[in-house]
Amino acid sequence: MRNRRPRRPKSTGLAAWSVLFVVSLGFWLVMSGHYDLLHVGSGVLSSAVVASLTLGVERRGHLFASRPAGAPEHGPLFRVSAAWGRFLVYLPWLLYQMLKSALQVAGVVVHPRMPIDPVLVRLPVRLSGDLELTTFGNSITLTPGTVTVDVEGREFVVHALTRAAAEDLRSGAMESRVAWTFGQPRS
User: Fold this and answer.
1) Which of 13, 31, 54, 64 could be a cystine partner for 83, CB 3.0 to 4.6 Å?
2) 161 contacts 118 by C-beta, under 8 angstroms
3) What does the pLDDT read at residue 129?
4) How far apart are CA 19 and CA 125, in angstroms?
C-alpha cells in the first residue's frame, strides 16, 4: 500500500473567495443601511453566492481574467483582487458623477425656464466583453439625466436630458474609466 500524502485544498481559492465575500458583504451592508437579522442574513447569503459564482466563472477564464498589456502573469487571486481593487476605485468616481449629474438635473428642473434640451446620442463604444459593455451601459443609466436606450452592435443609443450631458458622454471619460477598471487599454 502506497503512503500518499493527504491532498490539501488550494489556499488561493479560499483566500480569493474570502476577499470577494468580505467586499461583497461590506458593499451590501453599506448600501442596505438595515442591520436586522433578515437583511444581514440576506447579505451574507447573497455575498456567498456572488463570491462562489464569481470564482467559478474566474476558473473558466471569463471574468476579470484580462490583465494590462505587459503586466506579469499572476495567479487567480491576484487577478481577482486587482480587478476588484480597480472596481473599488471606480465606484467613488461613479458616485461622484452621479451626484454631480443629480445636481445638474435638479438645477435644470428648478430653473424658471426649465432649459431641457433632450437629445438622442449614438455613442460608438470601443470596449470589448459583455461585462465591460454592461458596466458602461449601467453606469450611463445610473447617472441622472442620461439613459442607455439601446445597444446596436458596438454603438449605444443614449437619451440625454441636456446637450451638456450628451457632451460629457462624448468626452469618453466614463468609457475610459470602465476600460481601466477591467484592465483594457484606455481609449
Assistant:
1) 64
2) yes
3) 84
4) 31
